[in-house]
TrEMBL record:
NCBIfam families hit by this protein: PRK06224.1-1 (NF004864)
Single Gene Ontology MF annotation: lyase activity
UniProt keyword annotations, A-Z: Lyase, Transferase
Gene Ontology terms: cellular component: cytosol
Organism: Streptomyces fructofermentans
Membership in a protein family: Belongs to the citrate synthase family.
Residue ranges with Low complexity bias: 11-21
Protein name: citrate synthase (unknown stereospecificity)
Principal EC category: transferase
Pfam families: Citrate_synt
Length: 291
């Protein structure tokens, strides 16, 4: 019996030693994936330390987006302002590259998620990135104004910097709309929020100063008013979102339109949809020089 007891003690001791040896590895793994965004255990899901069951039915999707990105809860007015920006950017028709790509992808025998990914992956610096760039530009104008410059001068200096690198000013002008129909409703909401003390209004002033300078420079020519990227950039910046998140939020918004178009296209029975209808011969292209 004594031997049996000793063997049991040795087995227990060996198990404790093995457990102690594994503990540092377990801690290291836990730290490797440590995050403040969410915590999941059997029977428990927390988002920013908020149990999911407390959010379901009481928090809107926009509130949860804010919670996950910012770690706090927006006021009702902040939530409404963010929602307006997200609603404004959901779609811009099948001629938008991201939408066109998703629709073509949906006819190629891939899943709906793959069609969505195709469209979303088209959102880069030239198509989808102007909001982020505009937040950066308006932040520069705001910073120069804070040094004592008036808004007009601050805008001119920053615009000169941007236009030394690119012919385009992000957030202003539109290839299709003389005046973007989304501009005025969004800026009206921002003005109301400024009047009620919900947001400060500095980025709005910066954007309006840039628009004013452009209007004077282009007197007699086609105006270059603020577009959807500029108006939503004002909202994201006024709400305190860093510039890279302006792009992320636009992608999140446009994903709704990408999904809707991909789903519609998938039900129309086409196979391998191309950029022009079957039977339409594209115009003959001139020969490539040096080829």
């Amino acid at each position: 019996m004594t031997g049996s007891v000793d063997e049991t003690a040795e087995t227990a001791e060996a198990a404790e030693t093995a457990e102690a040896a594994e503990a540092p590895e377990a801690d290291e793994a836990a730290q490797w994936w440590a995050t403040a965004v969410s915590h999941v255990e059997p029977g428990s899901i927390e988002l920013r330390e908020r149990p999911i069951q407390q959010l379901i039915g009481s928090a809107s999707l926009v509130d949860v987006i804010w919670l996950l990105l910012r770690g706090g809860t927006p006021s009702a007015r902040e939530s409404a302002l963010l929602e307006a920006a997200l609603v404004a950017g959901v779609d811009h028709g099948p001629q938008a590259p991201s939408i066109a790509a998703a629709r073509m992808a949906a006819t190629c025998g891939i899943g709906l998620n793959n069609a969505m990914a195709t469209g979303i992956n088209m959102l880069g610096d030239s198509h989808g990135g102007a909001g982020q760039q505009c937040v950066e530009m308006l932040t520069d104008v705001r910073a120069r104004h804070a040094t004592g410059l008036d808004w007009d001068t601050a805008a001119q200096e920053v615009m000169a910097d941007w236009q030394s690198r690119s012919r385009y000013l992000p957030g202003f002008g539109h290839r299709f709309h003389p005046v973007d129909p989304r501009r005025d409703p969004l800026l009206g909401l921002v003005r109301d929020a400024v009047a009620d003390g919900v947001v400060a209004g500095d980025h709005l002033e910066a954007a309006l100063a840039v628009e004013s300078v452009l209007r004077r420079r282009r007197a007699g020519a086609r105006p270059v008013p603020m577009n959807i990227d500029g108006a939503t950039a004002v909202i994201y910046a006024e709400l305190g979102f860093p510039a890279p998140l302006a792009r992320g939020l636009f992608v999140l918004s446009r994903s709704v339109g990408v999904l809707a178009h991909a789903w519609e296209e998938s039900g129309q029975g086409r196979r391998n949809k191309g950029p022009v209808p079957r039977g339409v011969v594209p115009a003959r292209l001139p020969p490539v020089q040096g080829a």
